[in-house]
TrEMBL record:
This is ABC transporter domain-containing protein. Keywords: ATP-binding, Nucleotide-binding, Transport. PROSITE patterns: ABC_TRANSPORTER_1, ABC_TRANSPORTER_2. It comes from Virgisporangium ochraceum. Residues 2-218 form the ABC transporter domain. Belongs to the ABC transporter superfamily. GO terms for molecular function: ATP binding; ATP hydrolysis activity. Pfam families: ABC_tran.
Length: 218
């Protein structure tokens, strides 16, 4: 479970997130919807301890991210694509992440298979398309088999087949009882993917409700 409790984040004069409160529950896909610049990434970064809240607090299963034992086994996250070192192979990138988190090497081959990158595991990430980088980021998020997952705009750069694949993956992860938060600026995409929506604009909460209450029978 993810708890965002009265979180405000300011960057100088810009209020990116404005007294935002919501809870992300396990067993369903929660869509985090809002236009570009609404504050979705910043909220996720606060949850992940990458940005410090100006006010309020975010916790994962009751702990601030920095207090989580074995963070990668507790929370998986996909932020922007391309965070992997371009000169490394996909395998090496994941192997390095696994090793620094004491995750067994066999899990690396497993997640490469899960995201469909097994055929290009030895190729350098530099040559990857945006879609392949997204898949690699998702593999990294899944590496620790975490019960809590955050995906920031995961369908960006994916072709229609990749979009359908992500949709299925998110639904499977939720069906396994995991807590899944996925951001998007695309209402139509969220309507096909999410069970529950948290809608924000200008850093503020607009709606926190089951999908059918927000979009009807679209
Ligand atoms: P979203 O993910 O919904 O597109 P963001 O969280 O990226 O929105 O951005 C929310 C607002 O905060 C925007 O106005 C953005 O320009 C601003 N912002 C985000 N990160 C920074 C930063 N590191 N420094 C200054 N402003 C930022
Ligand atoms: P680099 O390109 O920097 O040599 P690699 O991705 O080739 O990095 O490999 C990183 C580590 O993972 C090395 O210890 C390598 O032996 C091991 N390794 C790479 N590919 C596999 C694989 N398919 N199965 C098992 N171990 C592998």
């Amino acid at each position: 479970m993810i708890d965002v409790d009265g979180v405000t984040k300011r960057f100088g004069r810009t209020t990116a997130v404005d007294d935002l409160t919501f809870t992300v529950r396990p067993g369903r896909v929660t869509g985090f919807l809002g236009p570009n610049g609404a504050g979705k990434s910043t909220t996720m970064r606060v949850v992940l301890g990458l940005d410090r809240a100006t006010a309020g607090r975010a916790t994962i299963d009751g702990h601030a991210y920095r207090d989580l034992p074995e963070p990668l086994r507790r929370v998986g996250a996909l932020l922007e694509a391309g965070s992997a070192h371009g000169g490394r192979s996909a395998y090496h990138h994941l192997w390095w992440l696994a090793r620094s988190n004491r995750i067994g090497r066999s899990r690396v081959a497993e997640v490469l298979g899960l995201v469909g990158l097994d055929g290009v595991a030895r190729k350098r990430v530099r040559g990857f398309s945006l879609g392949m980088k997204q898949r690699l980021g998702i593999a990294a998020a899944l590496l620790g088999d975490p019960p809590v997952l955050l995906f920031d705009e995961p369908v960006n750069g994916l072709d229609p087949e990749g979009v359908r694949w992500i949709r299925g993956l998110l639904r499977d992860l939720a069906a396994e009882g995991r807590t899944v938060l996925v951001s998007s600026h695309l209402m139509a995409e969220m309507a096909l993917t999410a069970d529950h929506l948290v809608v924000i604009a200008r850093g503020r909460l607009l709606a926190d409700a089951p999908l059918d209450e927000v979009v009807g029978d679209a």
